Q: What sequence folds into this?
C-alpha cells in the first residue's frame, strides 16, 4: 500500500485518528514513540525554522526538505503536511504536491485563505472567492496520485462556513476541515452538511475550538484530529523553566533524576534509534 492509501485506510477505520503536530526532528522523534501519525504543523515549522509567526513566511522548499528528512527517519509513520494556501500560486501548489508525494508524504492540507494569511485560530482571517479556491483544489486533486488531500476552509461567517463545507465535500478531496470551529454544536452542523465525507478537527492549546477527547470526537462523527502544537508549546514551557532554574542556581546544572530525568544518555539513546532506522531497511509502508 502507498503512504496515502494507508492514511486513507486509517481515517476510514472506526474511531478518530490522531495526528500529532511536530516542528523539528527532535519533537518528531518523541512523537513517534507514542503515536503512529504526525502532522507537519505550519505554526510549529514557522516558529522553529524561522522564529516567526504563522502568517505566510514559510518557503515551500524548506517545508519539502523537512518532510524529506522526516520520511527518511520515520518510514512507518503517517505524515500529514500543512501546505497553507499552496504557497499562493496554483502551479506552485501542484509542484509542491508532486514533490511531497515523491518523498513519501501521506497527505496534505490545502486551505482557502488569502494573503496575508493567519493561524487558523487567529482573528482577521480572509478567504479567497470560493470558485478561485475550488479551481486550485481541483488542480491539486488532478496532480496527486494516491496522496490524501484535506480541503480546508477558514471561513468565519456562519452561512459561509456551511456553504464552503458543503462545496468542499462535493469535490474529490478525501477529507474536509473547517478550522477554528467554536463549539460542539458547530461540529455537529458541519458533520451534517458534509454528509459521508470524512471530517478532520484541529485542536490547538489556547485556540478557539473546544478541548475534546478522542472518544468525544468519535461520538461527534469526527474521523481524524490534528494536534498542531503540543510538542512546540511543551518545549517552550520546559525550556523556559529550565533556564529560569539555571539562572537562579548561578549556572549550576540540576542533577538528572535516576528515573524520568533527561540527560545526555537519554537524549543520545533517542537519537540513536533514528540513526538505526536510517541505516537499516526503511522498507515499504505497511498497514497497521
A:
Amino acid at each position: 500500500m502507498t503512504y496515502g492509501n494507508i492514511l486513507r485506510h486509517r481515517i476510514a477505520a472506526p474511531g478518530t485518528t490522531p495526528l500529532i503536530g511536530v516542528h523539528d526532528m527532535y519533537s518528531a522523534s518523541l512523537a513517534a514513540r507514542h503515536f503512529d501519525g504526525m502532522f507537519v504543523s505550519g505554526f510549529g515549522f514557522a516558529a522553529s525554522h524561522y522564529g516567526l509567526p504563522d502568517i505566510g513566511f514559510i518557503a515551500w522548499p524548506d517545508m519539502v526538505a523537512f518532510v524529506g528528512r522526516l520520511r527518511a527517519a520515520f518510514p512507518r509513520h503517517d505524515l500529514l503536511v500543512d501546505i497553507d494556501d499552496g504557497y499562493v500560486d496554483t502551479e506552485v501548489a501542484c509542484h509542491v504536491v508532486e514533490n511531497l508525494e515523491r518523498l513519501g508524504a501521506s497527505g496534505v492540507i490545502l486551505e482557502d485563505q488569502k494573503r496575508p494569511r493567519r493561524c487558523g485560530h487567529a482573528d482577521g482571517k480572509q478567504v479567497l472567492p470560493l470558485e478561485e479556491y475550488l479551481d486550485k483544489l481541483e488542480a491539486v486533486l488532478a496532480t496527486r496520485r494516491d496522496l490524501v488531500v484535506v480541503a480546508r476552509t477558514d471561513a468565519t461567517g456562519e452561512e459561509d462556513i456551511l456553504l464552503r463545507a458543503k462545496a468542499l465535500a462535493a469535490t474529490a478531496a478525501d477529507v474536509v476541515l473547517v478550522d477554528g470551529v467554536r463549539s460542539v454544536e458547530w461540529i455537529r452542523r458541519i458533520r451534517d452538511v458534509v454528509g459521508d465525507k470524512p471530517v478532520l478537527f484541529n485542536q490547538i492549546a489556547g485556540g478557539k475550538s473546544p478541548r475534546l477527547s478522542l472518544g468525544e470526537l468519535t461520538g461527534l462523527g469526527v474521523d481524524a484530529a490534528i494536534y498542531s502544537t503540543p510538542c512546540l508549546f511543551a518545549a517552550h514551557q520546559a525550556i523556559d523553566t529550565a533556564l529560569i532554574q539555571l539562572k537562579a542556581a548561578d549556572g549550576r546544572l540540576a542533577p538528572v533524576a535516576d528515573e524520568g530525568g533527561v540527560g545526555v544518555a537519554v537524549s543520545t539513546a533517542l537519537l540513536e534509534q533514528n540513526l538505526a532506522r536510517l541505516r537499516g531497511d526503511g522498507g515499504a509502508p505497511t498497514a497497521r
User: Anything to note?
Assistant: DSSP finds eleven helices and eight strands in the chain. The longest strand covers residues 17-22. Residues 230-248 form the longest helix (19 residues).
